[in-house]
Amino acid sequence: MSKNLGPVCKLCRREGEKLYLKGERCFTPKCGIERRNFAPGQHGRTGSRGGNRSGRESDYLRQLRAKQRARRVYGVLERQFHRYYEVARGRHGLTGLNLLQILESRLDNVVYRLGFAVSRRQARQLVRHGHVAVDGRKVNIPSYQVSQGEEITIRENSKKVPILEIAKEFASHQPLPNWLEIDRDNYKGKVLALPKREDINLPVNEQLIVELYSK
């Protein structure tokens, strides 16, 4: 499956809830869910969101929707998401939590969590354009897995990128992640530990994803 390049608000409408894919816009009346809270497409106003004709979802469909929702939140393609699941399954502990920790440890997500971007999509762009360094070394791979103790910074020559100031203002109104150490004035942060489940406040049901892949 190719990367989605269309309007991301349609993804939220498809899932029937906010996935916070467009940063500050999601907190305004311009949010797609606020304006058109029905699924996109010809039958969006009258049909169910992927259920059967009675409007009831099967167990399989609920599991599939949970996986699709997680993929869309983190901006991960199907093949890569399945690889993450296989890695999570091979680790000690709960597979669902391991999967979420892998997704949260992606460099683009960490850059977003640090408040250097207003969305994960924008964070991915910052990384790809070479504005981000890990322990002083430029890393332009959004899927790079950040480890505990690593320091993430915006490179010196990139600190005047206009979106950084906008992101800093946006992030000042958001809660600080407990698992990260953040110095937003100097555009740097550090991974203190892997996030706990209570640190990941997202509309994602990891247990349904595990059930889907366990079939």
Name given to the CATH homologous superfamily of the largest domain: Ribosomal protein S4/S9, N-terminal domain
Order of helices and strands: HHHHHHHEEEHEEH
CATH class of the largest domain: Mainly Alpha
Count of helical regions: 9
Beta-strand content bin:
5-15%
In which order are the strands of the major sheet placed?
A: 2-1-3-5-4
Assign the CATH architecture of the largest domain: Orthogonal Bundle
- List the domain count as a whole number: 2
Straight-line distance between termini: 22 Å
Biggest pleated sheet? 5 strands, antiparallel
Characterization of the model:
- The protein is an alpha+beta fold.
- Helix content is 39%, strand content 8%.
- Helix 4 (78-90) packs across helix 5.
- The protein is globular, with a radius of gyration of 18 Å.
- 35% of the residues are buried.
- The model has no long low-confidence stretch (mean pLDDT 85).
